[in-house]
Amino acid sequence: MSRYFVMMMIGLVTTTMALGEEHRLNLLVYSHTAGHRHGAAIEAGIEVLQEMAQEEGWGVTFTEDPSAFTTENLGQYDVILFNNTTQNVLPEPAQRAAFKSFIRNGGGFVGIHAASDTLYDWEWYGQLIGAYFRGHPRGMQTARIKVEDAQHPSMQGLGDEFEFHDEWYWFRSNPREQVHVLATLDRTSHRDLIAYDRRNRNADHPIIWCHEFDGGRVWYTALGHTRGPVEDDRFIRMLRGGILWAADR
């Protein structure tokens, strides 16, 4: 288990990596959970992002403390990343106001997997994330992902489609009319999704998307349930591109 993960678990919530006086971007990684905890995926995300920041020359802070969400503190970051957050991770109105102000001032947001299982009582966040989690088939399966925008920085090099092993979310609504869909799940490649809704086996199923929202940029992937998917080289490339796009770099 990484030192960063242990520190968060025992309440020493913030770790900052100093990578020089000037950074290409500064990233806040928020891994607080108030519901189900994807512990292995959260730890893997921290380790992947730590290494990515070192490679790219980014500044990065890891925290699970909601009190980090103040206008003054968030002002030092370019992107906030929700690393498998769940449920009510910003319980105070002032924390939500600071987050909204960050986006409205041009900040970027990246959400991994359970970031759509977060803040159900806040309509603004629902619009930001694009769609709320509804459910998933039991376990993990290999399924096919179809790329819709191969030119997007987060989709480059993946081809027209690829297979991936993960837990597959479906959502309370289809976000397509509100977001720019980058990739969809081929429901015919996943037996449990076909069983779930046989009449709509070919239904539109966005799985990765982005959009400009309320002054900022938002990128979301439903991938990343366990350590394996998060450590997949393709996921890491997607995540790097999503962060750079959200930062408008």
Percentage of β-strand residues: 15-25%
Under CATH at level 1, the class stands as Alpha Beta
Radius of gyration: 17 Å
Overall mean confidence score, pLDDT: 90
Uncertain regions spanning at least 5 consecutive residues? 1-21
Distance between the termini: 32 Å
Q: Which CATH architecture?
A: 3-Layer(aba) Sandwich
CATH topology: Rossmann fold
Measured as a percent range, the helix fraction is 25-40%
Major sheet strand order: 1-3-2-4-5-12-11-10-7-8
What general outline do the C-alpha atoms trace? globular
- CATH H level, superfamily name: Class I glutamine amidotransferase (GATase) domain
How are the elements arranged and paired?
Elements: H1 3-9, E1 15-17, E2 26-30, H2 39-56, E3 59-63, H3 71-74, E4 79-83, H4 93-104, E5 108-112, H5 123-129, E6 133-135, E7 141-147, E8 161-166, E9 170-171, E10 180-186, H6 191-196, E11 206-213, E12 216-221, H7 227-231, H8 233-246
Parallel strand pairs: 2-3, 2-4, 4-5, 5-12
Antiparallel strand pairs: 1-3, 6-9, 7-8, 7-10, 10-11, 11-12
Task: Walk me through the structure.
The longest helix is centred in the first third of the chain and has 18 residues, at 39-56. A hairpin with a 2-residue loop joins β11 and β12. The protein has eight helices and twelve strands. The strands form two sheets. It has a ten-stranded mixed β-sheet. Strands 6-9 form a two-stranded antiparallel sheet. It has helices at 3-9, 39-56, 71-74, 93-104, 123-129, 191-196, 227-231, 233-246; strands spanning 15-17, 26-30, 59-63, 79-83, 108-112, 133-135, 141-147, 161-166, 170-171, 180-186, 206-213, 216-221. It has a single domain (3-246), classed as Rossmann fold (3-Layer(aba) Sandwich), CATH 3.40.50.880. By secondary structure, the chain is an alpha/beta fold.
